[in-house]
Design goal:
Blueprint lengths: L5 E5 L6 H15 L7 E5 L5 H8 L5 E4 L16 H6 L2 E6 L2 H6 L4 H14 L2 E6 L3 H5 L3 H12 L10 E4 L13 H16 L9 E5 L7 H5 L6 E4 L6 H10 L4
Parallel strand pairs: 1-2, 1-8, 2-3, 3-4, 4-5, 5-6, 6-7, 7-8
Helix pairs in contact: 1-2, 5-7, 7-8
Bound molecules: phosphoenolpyruvate.
The site of phosphoenolpyruvate (PEP) has 13 residues, from strand 8.
């Protein structure tokens, strides 16, 4: 089991300077009220990273980005390197989110190269995997997750430097979640795949993502093999996100 659970908020393409500052400040203030917190990360849009970095400075909240480029620098208009993310205070970067796999055609090979760049820059990649509804209906969910985990992990990945997020695509933003048994089973598939050729499979953090909210967090986060959550919509509401943090078993 991973050393300490991680609750990461993926704000996606939401927020303004004013709302981001208010949300980050609200969460940072709540941290002072609780002694034993899980690891917490906020992943705002790239343009708001600097503002959120200064707002959470001095709090236990870590900063994460939603994507990075695989190269350190160069002619890549609109992209951000993992090295710059590290330089502006990020500790984490999400790679291979299903929205990027779908909207930008990101393949396992590209996701792996981004995760490698993250490691090389000193960031912890949160590597997202998960099947579509059609793949689940066709009985291929486990195969898809096996292929994505095996294909997206960078060389040198260890439980100390990567996080995996199992996010069934059909559960993202829909209000639907898999059954607890399905979550447990898919996390076991991801963990077994990670563990091929590695001795620290029991320690790698595997987050669940897909319509986690205050009302279902306790059940999902208590499941064996679930080491935290990647939270989209509910992370935009300080009270709901805090309920999720509060529901996280202290390990
Ligand atoms: C996500 O996009 O990573 C996610 C889990 O979104 P939501 O919580 O809104 O389903």
């Amino acid at each position: 089991m991973a050393a300490r659970a991680l609750i990461a908020g993926n704000w996606k393409m939401n927020g303004t300077q004013a709302t981001a500052k208010a949300l980050a400040a609200d969460l940072a203030a709540r941290c002072n009220t609780v002694p034993m917190l899980p690891r917490i990360a906020l992943c705002p849009p790239a343009a708001l990273l600097g503002l959120v970095a200064s707002t959470i400075s001095g709090s236990p909240i870590a900063l994460g980005a939603q994507d990075c480029h695989a190269q350190q620098k160069g002619a890549h208009t609109g992209d951000t390197s993992a090295w710059l993310l590290k330089d502006i205070g990020c500790s984490f970067v999400i790679v291979g989110h299903s929205e990027r796999r779908a909207d930008h055609g990101e393949t396992d090979i590209l996701v792996k190269s981004k995760a490698q760049a993250a490691l090389d820059a000193g960031l912890m990649p949160i590597i997202c995997v998960g099947e579509t509804e059609a793949e689940r209906d066709a009985g291929k969910a486990a195969d898809v997750v096996r292929r994505q985990v095996a294909g997206s992990l960078p060389a040198g990945a260890t439980a100390a430097n990567v996080v995996i997020a199992y996010e069934p695509v059909w559960a993202i933003g829909t209000g639907r979640t898999p059954t607890p048994e399905d979550v447990r089973a898919m996390h076991a598939v991801a963990r077994e795949t990670y563990a091929v050729g590695r001795s620290d499979g029991a320690d790698v953090a595997i987050l669940y993502g897909g319509s986690v909210k205050g009302s279902n967090a306790k059940v999902l986060l208590a499941l064996p093999g679930v080491d935290g959550a990647l939270v989209g919509g509910a992370s935009l509401d300080a009270a709901d996100f805090w309920t999720i943090i509060d529901a996280t078993p202290r390990r």
